[in-house]
Amino acid sequence: MDKHQHCKPWEHAWSRRQLLGGAAGIGGALGLGALGGLVNPVHAEKLAGKDKQVLFIWIDGGMSQLESWDPKPNTQFGGPFRSIKTSLPGVHVSELMPRTAKLMHRLCLVRSMCTQDNSHSAGVPRIQRGDPKNRGVTYPYFGSAVAKLMGPTSNKLPPYVWVKPGSGGFKPKDAGFLGPKYGALAFGDGKPPANLLRHESISEEEDVLRNELREKFNAKYAARRRKTNTEASNYVFDTAERLMKRSDIFDATKFSKRDVARYGSHELGRHMLVGRKMLEAGVRFVKVNSYGWDTHGDNFNAHASLMPKFDQAFSAVIEDLHASGMLDRVLVIAMSEFGRTPRINGHAGRDHWPEAWSIAMAGCGLNAGAVVGETNAQGTWVKEKGYDIGAMFHTWFNALGIDSHVTEFDNNGQPLPIAHDDMTVIPGCLARG
After folding, report:
1. Backbone angles phi, psi at 281, to 5 degrees
2. Residues 6+ apart with CB under 8 A from 224
3. In total, how many domains does the chain have?
4. Alpha carbon distance 226, 185 (integer Å)
5. What would the 3-class secondary structure string for 240-268 be?
6. Beta strand ranges found along 129-200 (DSSP E)
7. Residue 210 neighbours by CB distance under 10 Å
8. Residue 210 lies in a domain
9. What SS3 class is residue 71?
10. DSSP labels, 332-392
11. In this structure, are residues 326 and 277 in contact, taking their beta carbons and an 8 Å threshold?
């Protein structure tokens, strides 16, 4: 069990330096926020075509598997909540997930995750990078890897966006050795990008001439500097220009009352709805964040508040992606950096537990209705074989049609595997054929 009952404040905080990163001026200029209504499913089909996409739902801090995907009621560590039947015979989830329970036949659930790090500072980057073997370089987060390997969709909108509470901007650190160009474009707290629209005093012709002049200055500036940094700068400006041409996607008044009611007016609901609309617009990889899940104290009341919000927003996006036909080409992933301890601490909380936890998925390339692996009766350990995050990266890449044992990154002429060399796809997760 984790001996550290309380996290340190700095494990959850972003410093100003971290937020601004290597693109301080660029990120500040964009000041990105949440989007408004985009397009209906019919138009979404035309925009996105058959491009494969990813919705990555990051539950920051550690969702308890025992209060969600892998309940153990009436056991020593089970807690006060019941388990309920799902649309899969014999499969139960926590009673805090009634909506999701009805959609289990569309999901692929892995209950046998067994990872290594039980701290946020180590676990978050390790999990999101897939923990490849150490080769002296910093590997990219999954979103940056997908942006590099698959690029933008046919409409050329940013390949990797991040819908999150708090601040927005350009987050180059996610990209690791791939270079800042493949960082995340973050949309913070439902606010549209600052200065997105061309000022009314500037004509379209003047704007074209202004951009041509900017490009000439950029070329002269770049001639004597590192290509990766200037490339990233140009990329952000070009992205902003494309977003200006799609200013309609930032009009929050186009959110339908029905959608708002279904997803929830709470933060996660609003952000999940924005994430869906991003996918409809044709963004390749959308990450949606939810914070506040580190329940070292008062775990049960916290999950009684948090889980219904997740249940509402998650079930709504699965329903909508299925109804529009997009679920066939959108890989949906819902996960944390680890699970929570079966043992309940002295603060009525659960601590960090990477030894036995769950990841839920749906959509593109997956075996719908599969439940892979199990934990023992007390929920303390994985029975039989546990899977580390490297195996999950192999699974995700192959679900997207990327052969993870053949495809490589190119690090300035150095070939690097995209997933852990010694691991492979988790059996039972991928659709046959």
Report:
1. -70, -20
2. none
3. 1
4. 21
5. HHHHHHCHHHHCHHHCCHHHHHHHCCCHH
6. 160-164, 169-171, 184-188
7. 12
8. no
9. coil
10. EEEE-S-EE-SS--TTS---EE-SSEEEEEEETTB-TT-EE--B-TTSSSBSS--B-HHHH
11. no
Q: Which residue has the higher pLDDT, 3 or 232?
A: 232
Is 326:55 a contact under the CB 8 Å cutoff?
no
The whole domain housing 355 covers 17-204+234-417
Asked if residue 124 has pLDDT above 80, the reply is yes
Question: What does pLDDT average to over the chain?
Answer: 86
Residue 112: both structure tokens together: 């046998």
Alpha carbons 147 and 59: distance in angstroms, whole number? 21
Q: Residue type at 225?
A: R
CATH of the domain at 259: 3.40.720.10
Question: What is residue 152's DSSP assignment?
Answer: S
Q: Is 333 helix (H, G, I), strand (E, B) or coil?
A: strand
Decide if 347 contacts 296 (C-beta within 8 A).
Answer: yes
pLDDT in tens, 263-284: 999 999 999 999 999 999 999 9
Flag whether pLDDT at 47 surpasses 90: no
Q: What is the model's pTM?
A: 0.85
Residue at 302 is within a domain: yes
Q: What are phi and psi of 302, to 5 degrees?
A: -60, -45
Token pair 């370089």: residue = 137
Are 30 and 191 within 8 A, CB to CB? no
Separation of alpha carbons 400 and 331, rounded Å:
7
Tokens of 66: 């025992």
Query: Which of the 8 DSSP states describes residue 387?
Result: B
Tell me how far apart the alpha carbons of residues 169 and 31 are, in angstroms, rounded to a whole number. Answer: 5
Query: Is residue 163 within 8 Å of 288, Cβ to Cβ?
Result: yes
Q: Is residue 433 part of a domain?
A: no
